[in-house]
Amino acid sequence: MLTSTAYKLRAWRRLRASCSPVTALLLAVLTLLIVLLAQSPPITIVRRVGVAASNSNELQPVSQPVVIAARGEEKAHDESVTKSLAHTRSDWEYGDASDVCQPLFEKLERQGYLCGLYEREGSCRISRDWKSYRMRFWMFSQFAQDAYLYVKHFNRLNRRGVYLDVASNDAIKISNTYFMDRCLGWRGLCVEANPKYYERIFRERSCQLVPTCASATDGEVVQFKLRGEIGGVVGDTYKYGNNSKGTLTEARCMSVQTMLDRSKTTHVDYMSLDVEGHEVEVLKGIDWERARIDVISVEANENFERLSAFLAEKGYVRHEVGVEGAKSTKGKGFLGLDAIFHREDVRFGYPDE
């Protein structure tokens, strides 16, 4: 009695005999491929983006979201944030960075010559590209903040920079610091309270993710509006109003100084701050005697005068975009919605001095 395998073999031979030589050859090749695939182990594709400093081959997990349901969970929150800050991702791989960054560098170099940056000191007139923000369509920031800061200042930095992105939001979209990650090889902290962005930040960025909100003091419990790009701490300063759309939840914040201390960071080259009206409270959480932050870009809103006065007290001056060489300063001085400040002892355009 023929077995099932024998029946199949006989049927296969009859099929081959009834076919033309070309068809028979194709069937033989197909048979060989089926046999090889059946014997091969399953293929697992792993994109290794970041690892811990111990050179472990395992990708470190992101801490659980720090959105709390009730008060009295300070210890759990503290341990969660500490765990996140412990992930030093110095071995992060840049992937196809050359394909992404090289065209950007070429455009930025042309923009530098248009701006007169390389011709003579202190005479850079802002070209039409800056004024119309056409560069935002091929850079990552909303209003080409990354391009402007690179061409005007950080292109002269002869070391690996450090950034602090408070309310980093999406890892790439309208990010002021993604270019620094991907193309300049900087390291930094990404502070973000909305859990929807955690996985993408960890997958696409080299920064240490701090999964919480920033405020003046540690452990401050606030009402936080989960509203995508315009979410933030709800209160008198919230830009979009307490009754605006979005999911309202409680979150326990941490001061920026604690974040810097736990990550052993004392010098920040660039701080991006966009917390929808909560900026002054965030800045109050910095010990300005211990932390050095060279350049700050911050969204200008209803609290801008108060913000400017606070930074002036801390020894910062404003870099007014588009004012140098302009016939009129009316409506100028901002980069999109952002204002740029730097320390008095920092000469803008010469970060290594």
What does this structure look like?
The chain is built from eleven helices and 13 strands. It has helices spanning 4-17, 21-39, 74-85, 97-115, 128-132, 145-152, 178-182, 198-204, 256-262, 279-284, 304-313; strands spanning 67-68, 162-166, 187-191, 208-210, 214-215, 221-226, 232-234, 247-252, 254-255, 267-273, 292-299, 316-319, 338-343. The longest helix has 19 residues, at 21-39. The model is unreliable at 40-73, 82-96, 116-133, 235-242 and 325-331 (pLDDT under 50). It comes from Gracilariopsis chorda. Pfam families: Methyltransf_21 (PF05050). This is Protein Star.
Question: How do the helices and strands line up, and which of them pair or pack?
Answer:
Blueprint: H1 4-17, H2 21-39, E1 67-68, H3 74-85, H4 97-115, H5 128-132, H6 145-152, E2 162-166, H7 178-182, E3 187-191, H8 198-204, E4 208-210, E5 214-215, E6 221-226, E7 232-234, E8 247-252, E9 254-255, H9 256-262, E10 267-273, H10 279-284, E11 292-299, H11 304-313, E12 316-319, E13 338-343
Parallel strand pairs: 2-3, 2-10, 3-4, 5-9, 10-11
Antiparallel strand pairs: 1-8, 6-7, 6-8, 11-13, 12-13
